[in-house]
Every structure is written in structure tokens, then in C-alpha cells.
Protein 1
Amino acid sequence: MMQQYFALKREAEGCLLFYRMGDFFELFFDDARQAAAILDIALTSRGEHDGEPVAMCGVPVHAAEGYLARLIKAGCRVAIAEQVETPEEAKKRGGYKALVAREIVRFVTAGTLTEEALLEPRRANVLAAVCELRGTIGIAACDISTGRMELEECTPESAGAALARLGASELVAPEEWDAAPEAAVARPRHDFASDEGEARLKSLHGVATLDGFGNFTRAMLAAAGGLVAYLDHVGRGTLPFLQPPVARTGHATMAMDEATRSSLEILSSQQGGRAGSLIAAVDRCVTGAGARQLADDLGAPLLDRSAIEARLALVHWLHDDPLLRADLRGVLRALPDIGRALGRIVAGRGSPRDLGQIRDGLAEARRIRDFLSAKPDRPALLEALLPAMGGHGALVDLLQRALVPSPPTERSQGSFIAQGYDAALDELREISGNARRAIAALEGRYRAETGIAALKIKHNGVLGYFIEVPAKHGDILMAADSGFTHRQTMAGAVRFNSLGLHEEAGRIAEAGGHALAAEEAHFEDLTARVVEARLLIADTAAALARIDVAAGQAERAAEGGWCRPQITDDNSLAIEAGRHPVVEAALTSSGGKSGARTGSGERFVANDCVLSPDDRLWLIGGPNMGGKSTFLRQNALIVVLAQAGGYVPADRATIGLVDKLFSRVGASDNLARGRSTFMVEMVETAAILAQAGERSFVVLDEVGRGTSTYDGLALAWAVVEAVHSGNKSRCLFATHYHELSRLAESCEALSLHHVRAREWRGELVLLHELADGPADRSYGLAVAKLAGVPKAVVTRARSVLDRLEQARSETGGIAAGLGDLPLFAAAASAVHDERVDPVRQQLDLLDVDALSPREALEMLYSLKRLTTEREP
Ligand code: ADP
């Protein structure tokens, strides 16, 4: 057995091997250890190998799906080795001790799932392949749950942003490629051959040239080759559903790199989940397919004004007609996920239920088309979508006639083909129906004949049909001439057979077998018909998703009083009374934040942002917690929402198309990402300075904070100057460095703004309101007090501050230039003690995550000792 196991394990190429043994999938050796830890199941052992006990764990086959889901979530890939013959067949083949033959029947990997239970309904599941060809990067991506496929070529520098947009759950790359993304699964180099890729796509779609689908470069085709080869490998030769590829050029969508996406929390929050993200605050889609389309839209805002306007016009139409919108959403809500049902069917993993979903979804699509076609003033985008929703008359009709109203997920039991569809099948069912009735009649007859009222005819999987009487009556039927033959004696009952029962049961079994075979044949036939229509069905699914997105956007806009943005081709950005959708939603739902006192009470304070070529950089000061980050991000999010073709949380918005969006948060604000290093901050800032242009929008939050005050100020200063005079991008720059105000003197397109705060009866009141001009002071101490820093510490800080300010006035004013920052010279000496503080040094060196609880405790003791030693 071990020999067979090792052969399969080699074939599994690094995947965990699920080795079928009877009712269990067993895992051995390291696989077992890994799986047992992830699944929290018992690790046992079995036999010995090389003198060591073999570690083993197992999961029951009927519950395997749940365990698979958890393993996939934990980043594993799994190969399923099934028994491909029965023990009887094995015996026949190889004698009494023959081993049942096993084969890997499929691989389960994060990027190649189709099972409803393993997929998230509102998230696309992307598999991507990436490779390099003569200095350019090719990327191929698909979502096999719906068949979508796209190819992209980019430079090595922009590859990161392209992959970030895709958010693939699994990535493959050629082996031995130095620049391969860390998480990528290594695949043979020869899989990534462009001619092979091209040939595969051509044969897949039955075309002589791919030109009809778009312009594909060699790098794109090489990546496509790698992708299809991997799918082939994982599917053991059966390819999943792939629609014709779409070529994506970097110029069609707004560029956003990984850091920008994560800092703006577009599809997931920095904590990792959907909660707290932009999409969670915006998504009002009523179908999973709509939600997936919306995620796609928000992840790839458009650059083409007319395409954006087309989407906006549809949202507008639905926004202005609440009754129509409500009706439409009501119907959409009931739609099955036909895109994913189709994905399963084409991949050969479809069920009768999936066919039923296709039937219902297509029928519903036709009704929606009829309903919308009757409405006046339809926007152009809708007109373009409607034809895709009605072309399936014959198929819908066929499926409606063929299938029962709610077909089961299990196909081996039959009972999914409707009465009246196939006369021969009906006859077989009639025969078994009659036989069942005959058996029921037999029961009555036998009771009368034997006088045993408790006699029953029963059925189970082992014996089939049998007659059962309580033990005390057993003798009556045991009599030689009773006509009954004994089959089994139980504790309280005896079981018999009879000639009559045997015959009727035979009829049922035979008719049942034929009926099952007939249903199976129909299933194959119906599946083939659906597969034939796959591209049209995929179009229908896409059209419905697009309509759902628009209706959801309209709903969200109506709910929040959002406006339709004006899109222009110039470099302006004018947002009146803008709001942050996530922060606003959080305030509304919690009924306002407790704790910190805000001048706004419980409500979100709307703010304007007006940038133009000669006032393109806003430097925003004001106290911590004053609302700077919120303001920065809300404007970036409004741009994303607008260019994704939706309404925006503002009273009015004019948006000059943004080609690249950058958002960065200074290192110390960024601890949650677990990359606290100042290095990361600078790498990210460098990327902006290298890439941002006049059409870009840059949002920088406290950049320069992750290092000493002195360096930080200097860097912030230089970065602002560079963005202002070099990149010339529209930019919002939040800082608590007061001194940066001086930049207004040398940078003509820079203006000063601040979030307002007031001290009232010794308490700080944050107004969250943006005002013109520099912040009058930093309010740092007031914020510290608000945050509950002990009074003694605040008082001490106040006295240090006084000394600093005194030093400042003595040296005659604040920073006159970067070479000469007297304030900081004074500050350096005033806080000198703090710099060499041994406790602080210890803390700086500490890697908290690396400590065991015991080490942590010891560290605390040692820190405590240090402080007591220092105390006079
Ligand atoms: P800063 O960047 O200035 O430190 P934040 O933008 O992080 O401040 O805001 C701190 C908190 O203040 C937010 O979490 C939010 O609860 C609240 N806040 C920010 N802006 C507003 C606003 N415009 N209206 C109401 N509350 C706001």
C-alpha cells in the first residue's frame, strides 16, 4: 500500500494527498501532521515505515467538503485520490490480497474551486499566471467559477499594481524565476510558451485566429499558456469553463498600487475582512454576481469618460425612479447565480440543481428584459444589455419541460426529470409504481393469510425488500409449507422473503435501474445543451450583474443623498460637502462615538475639497484625531466611486479624470499593517515620486513620521516640494509639522488648510471641519489629555513645551530653511534625556511577537528594574 501511496504522493506535486480508504480520506506523514494541526483533528499512527510509526489522520468522506474548505483557507492545496475500482473488482483482477486501484481524480486548490460551498458568493475567485518575456510581464487571469478570463501585459514596475488589482487567490509562475512573486506556485517553464498558449486558446474557442477577441502580445499568450496548462493539470485533463479572453491594457483603468488599495481599504479593511471597507459601505447589490461585479468595478475604476458616463446614466435612470428600482431589485433578488452554476456544469461538476438554476435564471432574465423594455427613456447601456437577456427561448423551454420544479443536488438518485418529458421513462416509473402498490397489497394479503396484524413489508439497503414479523410469530412463517423463506433472525423480529415479493421487488429494481440510466442520459443531454449555449448564458449573467450593480448604486445613492458626479477631462477636482462613506456609516450606525468629545456631536461633518491647476496641493494641519486622514481618504474614495461609474457621497462633485491614484500613510500610523519600518514608508513614497503625473491624485498622510522629528520634517518638506514642482499632481498632504506652513511662501500652487478645533473650558473640542489657513497650533497636549494620558505626564509635557517655545522665540522664529531649524536644535537638547533612555532603547529593540509569555514577563521585570535604578 505504501508503494501506491508514495507513487500518488509524487504525482500530487506538493499538494496534501487525500487517500481514500473506505468511508474516509486518510492523510499520512507530514501531510497528516499539517492537516491535523489546521483542522484540529486527532493525529494517530498506523504501522511503521523505516522503523518509525506512520503519522495518520482522516476525515469522513461525507464531511470532506467542510474540511477541504478549511485547508484551502489555510493556504493548502489538496489532491484527491479515489478508489477507482471496487474491492471485488480488485480481487477479480489480482487475487485475494490485491490492492484497490486508486487515482488522483482531482486537485482542489484555492484558485480552481467551483463548489458552491467553497466559494464566497460576493467575491470573485481569481487564478492568475504571471511570467516574463523579454523584459515585459505577461499576466493571465481567470475566474473559473464563471469562466471570465483576461490577459494583460505590463512593465516589471507596474506588475505589482496589476496583480494587486486582480487579488488572485492563487498564482502560478514559472519555476526558477527569480522575480516570481513569493506566493506563486512554481510550474514547469515550458508551460509558459506563447505559441502553445495561443494554440490552446484557439482550439478551446474553435477559432483560427484570436484577433476577433482582441490584440494579444506574446507575453500575454505565454502567461495564458501557463494558466491553461495549470488548469489542465489540476482538472486531470478536463478544462473548466473559459470564456474568450479579454485583453486588458493598462490604459483603460486607473492605476492603484497595492499600498494605495490597502490604505484606502477598498475591498477589504486593514484588519483583513470586508467589514469596514469601501465596498461594504457601498454594496447594495441583491445578487452575488452583482456584488462581484461591483468589487471588480471598484478595483478598476475607468479612465474612459464615455464609459463612465454610460454607467452613470443607468444609475441615474434607476435613481430617479424609486418604484422601478424597487420592483427591479425585488426580481433580481430571487435570481440564482447562473454564472457559477454554468461554471460547475461546464467543468463537469454540475448537478440537476445547477440545471434548474440555469432554467430559472434564464427565464427570469427574459421576464426582466420584457419588464425593462416596456419602460420609456432607457439609457444606452441598458439598451446594449437587454438583447443578452432574452436569447434563450428554446433552451428555457427545454429545461422547463425536462426538469422537476426543484431538482436535487444529488444526481445518482434520479428523480429530477419531470413527468411527461420522456414517455419511456414515465412507463418505467409506472412499472415501479405499480410494483410498489403491488407490494403494499401483498402486505395486506399476507396479514390476512397469516393472521399476524404486526406483519410488515420493509426495505433496507442490505436485504432489499423483506417481510418482517415479531419474533413470537416467527414460527408461523417458518413452517415448511408457509410459502415464506427465512432470511434473518433479529433480537425481536424475524425476516422472510416470498416468491410474490421477490418478483415485485425484481420489477422495481429492474425498472428503477432503467429509469436511472434514462435520467442519466437526459442529464448528459441537457448538460450538453447548456454547454453549447455557454457564451450566451455568460453574457446574460454579466448583463444581469451589471443591472444589479447600477440598481444597487442607485439605491445606495438614494439612501445617503449622494450625487451624480460630473466627469471632466481637465485637472480639476471640486467636491462640495464630501463625506467619507465608511466613517459616516459607522457614525450613523453607532449613533455617534462615545468617549472623545467632538464638536460635531453625532453627525459626520461634510467638507469641501477644491483643487485646480493653480491650487493643486493642499497642506492640511490641525490636531491629531481632528479628521485629517478621514478628509484625505474621503476625497480619494470619491474619485474611485466616480470613475467606477457610481454616485458619490457629496452634494456636488466635478472630477477631472484621475489616471493614477496614490495613497500613503506615514509609518507610525501604519502599525496595523505589521510593517512599521520607516523603510517601507520611504519605498512607497519613492514609488509615488517616480510615477505620479499631472493627471494623478496623491494623498499623503503624515508622511515622514516614521523617523526622528528632524529627519521626518526634512523629508516631508522635500516630498511636498517634489510633488508640487516635479510631479505637479493634485495632492492632499496631511501633517502635524507646523513648520511646513512655510512652504506656502515658495510653492505658488500650494495652499494651507487645517481641521478646526477649539479648547473650551479646558477641554478640547474637535470640530472635524476644514478651514483655510494654517493651524494655529498643534493641540497635541490637549489630544493627549483627551486620550487619557495621566495628568502628571501632560503637565510635564506642558513644561517641556514651554521651554521649547521659549527657545524658539529666543532664536528668532521657526524654520527659515532646511539647513537651519533652530527649533529642532533646541528640541534635540530638550529631549536628549529621552533619546538615551535605556527603557526606551530596550523597547525599541524588542520584537514582541517573538516573545514567549514567560519571556514577556521577564522583560517586564527587567524594564521595571531599569526604571527603579534610574529614579533618584
Ligand atoms: P487625524 O487624521 O486628524 O488624526 P482622523 O481622520 O483619523 O484624524 O479622525 C479621527 C476620528 O474623528 C475618526 O475616526 C472619526 O470618528 C472622527 N471624524 C473624522 N472626520 C470626521 C468628520 N468629518 N465628521 C465627524 N467625525 C469625524
Protein 2
Amino acid sequence: MQRYSLLNLARNALRGNKDWRPAWRTPTPKPGYEVVVIGGGGHGLATAYYLAREHGIRNVAVLEKGWIGGGNSGRNTQVCRSNYFYPASAAFYDHSLKLYEGLSRELNFNIMLSQRGVLSLAHSEHELEINRRWANATLMSGVDSEILTAADIKKLVPRINLESRYPVLGGFIQRRGGISRHDAVVWGYARAANALGVDIIQNCEVTGFQTRGGRVSGVSTSQGIIAADRIVMSVAGHSSVLAQRAGLRVPITTMALQAMVTEPIKPALDTILVSGAIHAYVSQSDRGEIVIGGAADAYNSYAQRGGLPVLQGTIAAVLELFPSFSRLRLMRQWAGMVDITPDTTPIMGLTPVEGLYINCGWGTGGFKAIPGGGHTMADTVAHNRPHPLITHFGLNRFERGALIDEGAAAGVAH
Ligand code: FAD
Ligand code: PYC
């Protein structure tokens, strides 16, 4: 892999930047691979990377129907945190956050992790009490969390209007939470996986599965049949459709989740604010844009665009908190198709079809989970049993009723 370093930057600049090689190859698919990963989002690429890096399984292809990162991984609002309510979730997401903390160095790619804190607001006494329980639950799982008064919040976020229609009474913060650049996470994993021999094949849609003797033997794709003993599905909002082609029913509902950015302004907000009650969250990107998101659209859809009512409601909520932002012009708005489970917890692990593994159900919160998801899925595929951190996230939990209801901790949008 051509290393990115100050020395290399200077050397290449002096040579007119002619010697940089593409960050990954554009291979034609081989007739078969040891492992095929379907979906070139963050989870698929991270799985391929850790298969090669940690398990020596390098005969791997990632098949992406469009371009890598063109799904939710390149459309999200970049929030990373691990302050989940239940111990199983907190342990998993903290594993992911810890991997994020070392990722720029590991991938030799600046993922621009900025741990500026994720602050959840409470707008009523009832919500304040729930926030206290939530903060204490995360502390008991060994995850940092701190309860803040309204005065603490005003000090941290001077522009906030505490006396809005929904007054701010307090909240809690995970100071290790933050944002990292979503494209960089995708490209960093792709470049590192490619360097270890993984084939990343774009414009290659998987249309069905080949089976032999009750187990998978390959996939049919828009570029022909590709054989594989082990297949991982990481296709987010398309999970139920694709799983059906393997004869599986997965409890995924697909909805559009939208976000938007304003024109860039000088530094105005250096933490991430989340309000479950008014269904909005807001941060400022490194380019200066105010990044705004809210609830998922209220209906099922496979279209990568959202409707105006949610947009309008979200903007109204943010302007209650920050009246001065009403002067800003909106620059862009977009949406992704999120894969929502009944308990807002992901589905990870083995499936009833031998050799077929699934990683989905991240809904509105799987960006923070990319390193952890890739790391544990690779281990699961390599050993054909769930990694200890994901045993609670199996598809079979819906048969047993062993749900992990993280609805309240799923950011705001669910
Ligand atoms: P994706 O990145 O969607 O990748 C799946 C890939 O599979 C896609 O590229 C798709 O083209 C491909 N694919 C589908 N079908 C096929 C097929 N048949 N053959 C081949 N390829 C196929 N999470 C957070 O943690 N923090 C946030 O702040 C946050 N904000 C969000 C804001 C928005 C607006 C949205 C939409 C999502 C947000 N999320 C957030 C959620 C997060 O983006 C996703 O959970 C995460 O990116 C999922 O990653 P993935 O790799 O599973 O899916
Ligand atoms: O999961 O933290 C989250 C989140 C924030 C915004 C969207 N998802």
C-alpha cells in the first residue's frame, strides 16, 4: 500500500503528483472466492478488511451494486457514541468506538474522528429522570457518561435557547462521543482491504443465490455467477428483499431517513446535540455547515429521498433550540434507506442457510458500528459461530422473544 505520510506528500508534490496510484484496483470478478461479501458499505468493507487482516482469509470479494459508500454509509450524519442502555449493546458499541479511536493509524487514513461529545437533552422532569437512568446504566456498563444541568448546557452551548417551547431542563453527555468523516471510513477500509488482496467489485448487483446440498455455493450477479463457500449479506435497506432470494424472512422495515446541511459558517457549535422529545439533532461539520437530522419518514420506501413534512418538522425543532440559525440558508438535503428491526437492535451472525451470514438492522445508527460490525462479523465467518459480543444479536432472537429494546437509545430517528 502506498503510505500516506508527510514525507510522501512532499515527495509527490515535488514530482507534480504524477506517481500516486489509485487507492484500490478495479478488478474483473474471478470465477470464485472463499468469501463473498454483498454490499460495499462500511460494514461490508470492514468485514472484508478484518477477514484478510485478522484471519488471513484474503480470497475475498466485496460485490457492490452501485459505488462503494453510495448507500447509507456515505449519507449519514457521522455520529459515533456508545452510550446504549442495555449491557449487550453498550459492550458492542464501545468495542466499536475503541476501534474508531485507533482507526486513522490502523488504516493509515485520516478518518477525522473528533470526540467533541454527544449531548442528549431532556425537556421535562420525566425525561430528565429517564436520562439519569440511561446515564447510570451506561456507567454500569463501563461507558463514560455525565449528567448535566441546564446551566452546564448553557456554558457548553452558549447559543442554545433553554426557554423554548420545549424548555431544556438538563441532559447527559458522552464526552468520548463525536463524529468522524463517513467517506473517509469507507475509503480507508476499501484501500486497506484492497492492499491485502480483497477484490472490490463495483456495479455488480447480486440477484440471487446458488445452493448445493442445502448450503450456499455462490451468487448470481449482473456480472455473472460467482462461486463462494461463505457469503455475507451487508445490504442495509435491501436486506429483506435479498434475504427472501435465499428463502429467508427477516423482520426488516425499510424507510427513508433524511438529513440536511446549511451553508458553512464560522465555528458556532462544538458538540453534538440530540433531542429525542423534539426529534432533532444538530452538529457542525469541519467545513462549517450545520448538519441537521430528525425522524425517519413515516412510511415504508425504497426511494433514496425523503418527504417535506419531516424536513419541515425537523427544521422547526432545531430553530426552537437555535433561533439564530433561522438566518442560514439550507444547502443540501438527502436521504438513505434504513433497515429497521422491531427492537432497534441489529441482526448479526449465522442464518438457517448454511454458509450464509447476515449483518443488517442498523437502522438509523450503524455508522458508529462499522468497525465493531466488521470486526465481529469477520470473526464470526472465520469460526462459523457468533463472536461473543454479538451472541445476543442473532436472527433467532425473534423466535425466542429475546429482544433488546434499544428504541429509546437509537439516537432520535426510529
Ligand atoms: P450501506 O452503507 O447502506 O451499504 C449497503 C450497500 O449494499 C449499499 O452500498 C447498496 O448499494 C448495496 N447493495 C444493496 N443491495 C445489493 C445487491 N443486491 N447487490 C450488491 N450490493 C447491494 N448511523 C450512526 O451511527 N450515526 C449517525 O449519525 C447516522 N446518521 C444517519 C443519517 C442518515 C440520513 C442515514 C440515512 C443513516 C444514518 N445512520 C447513522 C445509519 C448508518 O448510516 C447506517 O446504519 C450504516 O451506514 C449502515 O452501513 P451498511 O454498510 O450496513 O449499509
Ligand atoms: O445513532 O447516534 C445515532 C444517530 C444520530 C443521528 C442519527 N443516528
Protein 3
Amino acid sequence: MKQVIDFVKANLEKEKQPAHALGFGKYFTDHMFMMDYNEEQGWHEPRILPYQPLTMEPSSMVFHYGQAIFEGLKAYRTPEGKIQLFRPDKNIERLNFSCQRMSIPTLDEALVLDAITQLVTIEKDWVPSEEGTSLYIRPFIIATEPYLGVRPSKRYKFMIILSPVGSYYGGDQLKPVKIHVEENYVRAVKGGVGHVKTSGNYAASLKAQEEAEAQGYDQVLWLDAKENKYVEEVGSMNIFFKINGEVVTPELNGSILGGITRSSCLQLLDYWNFPVSERRISIEEVFEAYYRGELEEAFGAGTAAVISPVGELSWNNQKITLPPSETETIAKRLYDAITNIQLGKEPDPFQWTVEVK
Ligand code: COI
């Protein structure tokens, strides 16, 4: 039976920012979704309420042991004014995958889709229409039991907040980013939680990110933790290379996040019969391809980042620059295809979009 989601309307409506001021994740809409879990009732009391601060005990387990997971997806406004979600089923599936790995009770996937749909419908005026903008949807779960022993919490909160966003890196969506290949720190090991969207992965990445930024880089590219040799991911996006006419991306090996934009790129490339392979690729191979003149492109793919061409890569005291291509790049072709489907400007042969009415 379909669960009823209660609704308490906000008294005040916040002022909306112009598209050029949005950036990423700085502004939040008027309402949020919330649901609680305890052992007696399971997940209960789904509700949409005014966006507001939380009151929590300082002993809540999330503050101490980081039992927390999240997701990121987007709602888009089409030129006709319709609002659509991009592959929400995949994010909800991954949310439950993260729950399982982090010992958090899983959610009813139909209820989560209903919660996202109802919340976005209430906030539909917050979905921006300007080029490169969207409404970012952030579902997340935190452990709320007040207890200091180390074991899975017996209480949780599942929430969804919304944020109108522009480009993740600032400026033009296709502005090339500078990436530093990380050699000292590692992100994830096989058997760990690198393939899970858990908050601690991002906390662990901050130091390397800070050091790379101090040297003028936008992000770090992580290598495998065992041999410091094979390319993994960028942290906020998966990575792709085009080498001698073929697109190559690291295979999902248990320490890389299975990105939904990553899988959309692979599906599109396959649909276009474009040579593509998911395999282990060493950073040495990437640099050697560059020196042979065969590294044609590098780009990242993620929900927040969409498709981000890489303009510069630094590793092992070598810096390589990928000049802007004279011809249309595969990154641009993928960007156009994905955003045109998201925005309803092109047919959606894969049924990726879900209209919010
Ligand atoms: C997303 O692309 O939605 C992500 O989760 C990356 C993020 C940490 C900004």
C-alpha cells in the first residue's frame, strides 16, 4: 500500500538567486523531506516540512563514527517548462546498496521515488531554466542514536534537501579542469568502502584536495591504493581517456564509485558503436600515450560535474596539457547528448528521464 507523505507548508518563501550567482550547493529551497527509523517502527513518518536546522543530541552516532551515506541527482526544466528527473531509479538503487554496505536499514525504493517526486513538485518554481542550471537533489541518511559504543546505530534519519545549481567548477560547464594525480595519499582499498557513497570517503579526500588546490589544481585523480599505479577516479567524478580512437575508463573494481553519468556515457558510446573499453589502466600508460601523440582526450563524468574535459594532468613531476581539439570532441558529444536528453531537447531512447507532474 502506498504510504502517505505528510506536508507542512513553509510560512515564508526564500528569495531565489539569479542563475549567475548559483554556483554549486550554496542555496536551499523552502522545504525538505524527512523520515525516521527505529527498531520498533522501522522507517516511519515520511513528511515534507519547511527546510530547517536539526536538533540532535551531541552523542548522535553519526558525529562520532561517521555512519552516513548520500546520493546526488538532478531535476531539469525542459524548454516547454516540464520538469524531469534523470535516472532516479539508479540513484535509489545505489542508495540502498550504500545502506547495505554501511549497515543501515534499506528503504522502500517506491517510497523514496515518491518522496523525491512530491518534494520536487512542491518546489517546482525552484527548478532554474537557464543553460547549465538544474535543481540538485541530495538524499542522505545519518545515524541518530545517542550512543558511544562502536556498532551500527539503532536509529536513523533519512532526509532530502534541494539546491538550485549552476556549474560545479564555476564558469562554463565545459571549461577544462586541471587535475593532479595523487601520489602520497590514497582514497580507497578493495574490500573497503570506495565503491559506496559514504561521507567518510569525501572527508578522507580533503587533505589531498587542499594540497592540490594550493598548487593551482581543481581536483585530484586517485590511483589504486596497493600499487599506486592504476587510475581509479577523481572523487567527484569518474575518469575517461580517449587513446588512439578508443575511449577507456577504469573498470569497477570494488574501490571505484559506480557513477550513473559514467554508466550513461558507456551506454551512449555503445549505442553509437564507438570503440570503448572498461579495463585497468595505469597512469604510466596514459602518459606514454600522450608522449606518443595518442592521448586525444581526458574527461570526467559525474552528476554534479556533468562532463568535464581535463585540460592539464600532473604526475610524477611531469605536466601534460591537452590542447582544445579542433574537431568536435567525444566529451562534447557526450555532454550534448546527455544534457539534451536531460532537458528534453532530444528523444530519450533509453527511457532515462522521468517527468515530475
Ligand atoms: C555528485 O556528482 O552528485 C556527487 O556526489 C559529487 C559530489 C560529492 C559533489
Protein 4
Amino acid sequence: MDVAVLTIFPEMFDRFWTHGIVRRAIEQGYLKGDAIDIRAFAEDRHKVTDDRPYGGGCGMVMKPEPLAKALRAARERMPEAVTLMMSPQGRPFSQQAAAELARQRGLIFICGRYEGVDERFAQQFVDDEISIGDYVLTGGELPAMVVVDAVVRLIPGVLGGRDSAADDSFADGLLEYAHYTRPPVFEGRPVPDVLLSGNHAAIAQWRLEAALVRTFLKRPDLLENREFTAQEIAILKKWSKELEDLIKVQSARCTDPLSGRQ
Ligand code: 4FV
């Protein structure tokens, strides 16, 4: 995959390309990352890339000409690339969006600064606008890094055999189960026995239950329109039976303090 980011701060990506899985993906030829300095395409001698907003108001707006020139130069090298603009007005980024983008051969990111880019540039050149969250950042560089980071690990082959994206959070619409590593007891807190059992079927069952209960407690919204498997429904039925039994036992125990009745 070819990735180009158009930014007035290309140096922000120097460390991004050279660390962790992004670095390994580049070294193994799965990813080619390039930060393009928009300022280099500004034709005035002060290399200006922003100007005051028409209609007045505070802040500055990114000029369309340097952006258009920089984008055309990038597209010469990556004619099939999809042009993405990071902005709070974009569609919410998600694991599903990351999986879609990971199937593309090339991605070009427009990293806005100031109040944003001239609307005419956005309408003429941007294929897809993406937001990483309902808050306002100072620039689109960090959002572009977030998207590239989420996408690169989904490129087949990037995550070696040991660590796969298959049981990612959200991969199957559930949050990930809890993870444990050595020592077997940490400050008096043991690792769940089943994980030390070597019984892979029991471990898989435990992990599915752990993912379900976590999602139920932390992100019940994820379960609303989710298709449950037969195995998952069996787990929910088991839980509801256990809950009913618990309620029966507990209600038998506790008497209503006011009426004294059960
Ligand atoms: C943003 C977001 C974001 C807005 C003005 C950059 C800033 C400045 N991008 N998700 N939230 N962008 O806040 O993607 O140009």
C-alpha cells in the first residue's frame, strides 16, 4: 500500500514511519509512507499556505492552490489512490472503515490546519472525509496517523502469524477478552486457572464469555444490532439461568424492612 500525507508539518511523521509495526511494514515492503510538504507547492516567495477567511471571523483557512498542486503531484505517483480528508465533519472512523481502507492500493491524506481547508478544494478533490472523534484538534496529522496505524495492521501479512487481527476488539463486534502473561501471580492476584490448563476448548469458551461480559458491561451499545451465534446465545441463556437462581435465593433471604414481608 502507498500512503502519502499532505501536511505543512511533514517532520511530524519522521518518528511515525520509523517505529513499531508501521516501521516493520515499511521494511517488509507492505507499506510505502511519504509526507509531502504543502508549503513546497506554494508559489509566492513567502510560501504562504493559509489566508484570512472570506466573510471575516477569527482564524485562518488553508489556501486551495498549494493543496491542489501538492495533491496533483501525489496523484501522478499514485493514480489509483483514494483522497481522504481528516476533519470533525467526516464520517466516524471505525474498525470496519479501517478494514475497507486496508483493501485500497493507495491512500492520500489531506491534513488540515487552522480552521480547515478552502471548501472548493474539498468539494473538487476529496473522495472521503473521516473524523476520529467529536472533538477539535489543532491539525489533521494525528488523525491521519491514527487511521494509517489502524489500517496498516490489517494489511494481510503485516501482523505475522503470532499476532493476528482476527480476534481484535470489534473484529467480531465484541470487545477483546482480558489478557494475562507471566508471572502467574502478580501482587497476590492469580491468572484465571483455565488459562493455565492447556485445555484450548475451555480457554476459547472462557475468552468468548469474557469478551461477551466485557462488552455487555462496557459497551452494551455494541450488542444492540449484533447477530449472536448459537454458542453465544447458549452462554447468555446460561447466565440468565444463573441470575434467576441467584435472584430466587437472594429474594428468599431478604425481607422487606418496612413490611417485614419476604
Ligand atoms: C479532526 C477530527 C480535527 C479541525 C481543524 C484540524 C482539526 C483543523 N480531524 N477528526 N476530530 N481536525 O479535529 O479528524 O484543521
